[in-house]
Amino acid sequence: MKKFFIRVATGAVFVAVLLSAILYNNISFGVLFAIVTCLAVNEFCNLVHEYKKTTFSTAIAVVGGMYLFLAMFMMDKVKEPLMLFIPYLMLLVYNLIREIYKKEGSTLDNYAYFALSQIYAALPFALLNILTGFGGAGYNYIMPLSIFIFLWCSDSGAYCVGSLIGRRRLFERISPKKSWEGSIGGGIIAIIAGYVISLFYPTLGTWQWMGMAAVVVVTGTYGDLIESCMKREMGIKDSGNILPGHGGILDRFDSAMLAIPSVAIYLYILEAFNLL
Q: 76 exposed, middle or buried (CB, 10 Å; 0-12, 13-18, 19+)?
C-alpha cells in the first residue's frame, strides 16, 4: 500500500510540474525540458556504460544533448538559425577524434552508443521546440501538451479496457501485460480527446487533431515497446530511480520518445500537401 501511495504522489507531482511548465510560458517550458533532456541523456549513458562497458564521455553526451535542445529552442529567435548548430557539429567532430586517442573500451561501441544518446535520448525533446512554434503565432503550448494528453488518455484507457476485457497479447515476448483490446480501447479514447481539443483549439482541423491522436497512440505504443525491449536485453526493471514508484526519466517518457518525432513528421506532411 505504501508503494501505491508513493507512486500516486510522484505521478501527481510529475503531471503538475509538466502542466505548469508547459502552460506558463516558453521560458518555463524550455527550462523544464532542458533539464529533462540532460537527465535522459545521463540516464541512458549510465545504462550503456554498465551494460556494454562503454567508455565515451557522459559529460560530453549531456552537454551535446542540452545544446541540441537549446539550439532548437532558439531557432525562431535568431536571423541565421542554422548557425546555432555549428558548435554542436564541432562537438560531434571533437568526440569522434577524441575516441581514437583512448586506449580502453571499444571505439565502435563508443561511437554507436554516443550517437544513440543524441538520437534517442536528446533529439525527441529538442523536437518539442518545433511543435511549440507550429502555426506561426509565437509560443503554442497546445501542440506539445496535446502529445502528453493523448499519451495519458491512451495509457489510462488501455489499462482500464485491458483489465476488463484484455485477452489477446499485443507483443507477449517484450511486454506480456499489453493486450490488443486495451491498446485499441486506449486509442479510441485518445482520438476522442483529439476531437474535444479540436473544439477549443483551431490550430488544426478536427480530422487533423484526431489523426494526430492516432499517430501518437501507434508510435507511443512502439516507443514503450522499444524501451521495454532495451531494458529486457539489459536485464533491468527500471531505467533509473529518480522518480519514486515510476523508475527513471526514460521510463516516464518512453512513449513520447517516438511519438514526438512522429508528430513532427505528421505535421510537416500535412503542411507540405496543404492539408491543414
A: middle
198-222 as b/e: b if 16+ CB within 10 A: beebebbeeebbbbbbbbbbbbbbe
**Phi/psi of residue 178, nearest 5 degrees:** -80, 140
d(CA 144, CA 203): 12
Segment 221-254, tens digit of pLDDT: 999 999 999 999 999 989 988 888 788 999 999 9
Below-50 pLDDT ranges, the chain? none
3-state secondary structure (DSSP) of residue 79: coil
* Sequence ranges of the domains in the chain: 26-138, 141-276
Q: What is the DSSP letter of 84?
A: G
Confidence (pTM): 0.94
266: left (phi over 0), alpha (psi -120 to 50) or beta: alpha
